[in-house]
């Protein structure tokens, strides 16, 4: 979908039909789409430099299907941060690639889950589908900084509770709680090399 930036008039392209938010490449205005109307949200805080080898435009392969990175949001917590890269596949399916301390997790939103947070603790077991997941950790986070285009489940500049769970066979689950909403993302831990990235960022002084 193509739009004209309400601030500078430049063409802005949303690659994913799920995207409601994008950043104009020319004037850096953040644009939110409401049906056919565009709202200029002004300039958002920048993501800042980090050591990620990934960038918007990087491509990779997950379960034999190729994807492209089209957006990013950054989650900040007490002791650090991680990146959540928004990805689309060739067939238009959307997903997330989380990048945290050298770990990579590809996941997809599961809409009809029954998980409710009620003071669960790390180490407890939660059954999702037929799989027993362990709660690895629970963090209070805030999302800061956006880049590229992002879908409706974007949490800009807002606080959330993030719960990471894992199961054997590299299964990964993230539950995100924000006010009265609970979102679930299911997927897998996957090795960097297995994602077969292309168009990675050149990092100065690295390798
Ligand atoms: Zn613009």
Descriptive notes:
The chain contains no helices and 16 strands. It has an eight-stranded antiparallel barrel with strand order 7-8-9-10-16-15-14-12. Strands 5-4-3-13 form a four-stranded antiparallel sheet, with no helix packed on it. By secondary structure, it is mainly β. The mean pLDDT is 90. The chain is globular and about 50 Å long. The protein has strands at residues 2-4, 11-13, 19-23, 29-34, 37-43, 59-62, 65-77, 80-89, 94-100, 103-110, 125-128, 131-148, 150-151, 159-167, 171-178, 181-189. Bound molecules: zinc ion. The site of zinc ion has 8 residues, from loops. Zinc ion binds at residues 5, 7-8, 10, 24, 26-27, 29.
Q: Key features?
A:
207 residues; 0% helix; binds zinc ion; 8-stranded antiparallel β-barrel; 16 strands; mainly beta
| Helix/strand structural class | mainly beta
* Element pattern in H and E: EEEEEEEEEEEEEEEE
* Physical arrangement of strands within the biggest beta sheet: 7-8-9-10-16-15-14-12
Bound molecule types: zinc ion
Cα shape: globular
> What composes the largest sheet?
8 strands, antiparallel, barrel
Task: Write a brief caption for the model.
The chain is mainly beta and 207 residues long. Helices cover 0% and strands 56% of the residues. The strands form 3 sheets. An 8-stranded antiparallel β-barrel has the order 7-8-9-10-16-15-14-12.
């Amino acid at each position: 979908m193509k739009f004209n930036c309400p601030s500078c008039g430049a063409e802005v392209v949303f690659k994913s039909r799920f995207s409601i938010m994008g950043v104009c490449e020319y004037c850096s205005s953040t644009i939110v789409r409401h049906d056919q109307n565009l709202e200029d949200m002004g300039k958002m805080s920048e993501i800042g430099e980090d050591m990620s080898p990934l960038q918007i435009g990087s491509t990779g392969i997950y379960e034999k299907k190729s994807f492209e990175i089209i957006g990013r949001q950054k989650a900040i917590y007490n002791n650090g941060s991680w990146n959540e890269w928004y990805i689309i596949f060739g067939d238009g399916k959307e997903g997330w690639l989380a990048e945290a301390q050298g770990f990579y997790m590809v996941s997809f939103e599961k809409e009809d889950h029954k998980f409710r947070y009620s003071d669960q603790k790390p180490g407890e077991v939660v059954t999702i589908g037929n799989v027993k997941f362990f709660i690895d950790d629970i963090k209070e986070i805030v999302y800061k900084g956006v880049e590229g285009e992002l879908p409706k489940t974007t949490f800009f500049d807002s606080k959330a509770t993030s719960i990471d769970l894992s199961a054997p066979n590299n299964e990964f689950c993230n539950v995100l709680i924000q006010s009265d909403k609970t979102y679930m993302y299911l997927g897998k831990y996957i090795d960097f090399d297995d994602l077969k990235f292309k168009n990675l960022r050149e990092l100065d002084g690295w390798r």
